UniProtKB/TrEMBL annotation, chain A:
It comes from Phyllobacterium myrsinacearum. GO terms for molecular function: nitrile hydratase activity; transition metal ion binding. Pfam families: NHase_alpha. It catalyses: an aliphatic primary amide = an aliphatic nitrile + H2O. Residues 16-196 form the Nitrile hydratase alpha/Thiocyanate hydrolase gamma domain. Fe(3+) binds at C107, C110, S111, C112. It is an enzyme of class 4 (lyase). Its EC number is 4.2.1.84. Belongs to the nitrile hydratase subunit alpha family. This is nitrile hydratase. Keywords: Iron, Lyase, Metal-binding.
UniProtKB/TrEMBL annotation, chain B:
This is Nitrile hydratase accessory protein. InterPro entries: CN_hydtase_beta-like_N (IPR049054), CN_hydtase_beta_C (IPR042262), Elect_transpt_acc-like_dom_sf (IPR008990), Nitrile_Hydratase_acc_put (IPR023808). SUPFAM superfamilies: Electron transport accessory proteins. NCBIfam families: nitrile_acc (TIGR03889). Residues 101-120 are annotated as: Disordered. It holds the Pfam family NHase_beta_N. Residues 18-101 form the Nitrile hydratase beta subunit-like N-terminal domain.
Length: 205, 120
């Protein structure tokens, strides 16, 4: 093996990184994307957007009847009032769990997800088994999450679309009377806002 | 991989409320480009969902979803090709150029396309 260079070739781009870089180069040259704007979006999603946003929406809905009513009527505006505006401009619908009905969200088509309030979806949400089974066998799917609901609770499945995305408002845990929004938000898990979990009980938080 | 395995995997990764969202930087860039192009009005979300769904349905898609962003990039390529912005062949060429540029760049220096020895 001949060594005709005196420096180490340890800068390598894997094929996917190179493809994405090529796309970015072309789209930048065409004036369709601005690398700085791309950087801002990446940073925002990595650091500022995530399920904590959704948890604040849920906690506010639990303590503030006016916000609760607004969220039921027009979730897109109610959520935007907290500055969690989706860059993608999709419509949001809040779905409220009740003691009789538990709600579950899926995107059977691809992986539509309420990014502005939950960040990016977990691996299982994007996986074929979840996408295909959630509608056919929601009770079986919930059991995989160790969530077993009473037979008297019906389960309603909401299939997201590109235009309409759902945020589940879980039931407020018992024993949290008088808690602040901040305390309550800490009980709200990501899964409870997708419907594959419940909000934590106060002692577990 | 079963759904239960995937859930356990997510929990193992600490995919909780503060979970890291992208496994590699290119995934973040690909994600952001789709948002940026939508903001530009190149496509609407319905078109995007259709394009992504088409890729996810191709035979060979992995059950554990670990190839999700590969499909994401493929969907992005097919949409920009459909919109006549560029072609897969152009992307192939430029991606190869970026790889040669990276290879020719000494460690510690920024990788620039001009570093591709075959580029003129």
């Amino acid at each position: 093996m001949s060594h005709d260079h005196d420096h180490h070739h340890d800068n390598e781009l894997d094929p996917m990184a190179a493809r994405v870089r090529a796309l970015e180069t072309i789209l930048t040259e065409k004036g369709l994307v601005d690398p700085e704007a791309i950087g801002v979006i990446v940073e925002t999603y990595e650091t500022k957007i995530g399920p904590r946003n959704g948890a604040k929406v849920v906690a506010k809905a639990w303590v503030d009847p006016e916000f609760n009513a607004w969220l039921r009527r027009d979730a897109t505006s109610a959520i935007a009032s907290l500055s969690y505006t989706g860059r993608q401009g999709e419509h949001m619908q809040a779905v409220f769990n009740t003691p009789d009905t538990h709600n579950l969200v899926v995107c059977t088509l691809c992986s539509c997800y309420p990014w502005s309030v939950l960040g990016l979806p977990p691996v299982w949400y994007k996986s074929p088994p979840y996408r295909s089974r959630a509608v056919i066998d929601p009770r079986g799917v919930l059991a995989e999450f160790d969530l077993v609901l009473p037979d008297t609770t019906s389960i309603r499945v909401w299939d997201s679309t590109a235009e309409l995305r759902y945020l589940i408002i879980p039931l407020r845990p018992e024993g949290t009377e008088g808690w602040s929004e901040e305390q309550l938000a800490a009980l709200v898990t990501r899964d409870s806002m997708i419907g594959t979990g419940l909000a934590c009980a106060p002692e577990a938080a | 991989m079963s759904l239960r395995d995937l859930i356990a995997h997510s929990q193992g990764l600490g995919e909780g409320i503060d979970a890291p969202v992208f496994a590699e930087p290119w995934q973040a860039e690909a994600f952001a480009m789709v948002l940026a192009l939508h903001n530009q009005g190149l496509f609407d979300w319905d078109e995007w969902a259709q394009a992504l769904s088409t890729e996810l349905k191709r035979p060979g898609a992995l059950d554990d979803g670990s190839d999700y962003y590969h499909h994401w990039v493929a969907a992005l390529e097919s949409l920009v090709a459909a919109k006549k912005v560029t072609s897969s062949a152009d992307i192939d060429d430029l991606a190869a150029s970026w790889q040669r540029a990276a290879h020719a760049t000494p460690h510690g220096q920024p990788i620039r396309l001009e570093n591709d020895p075959e580029r003129f």
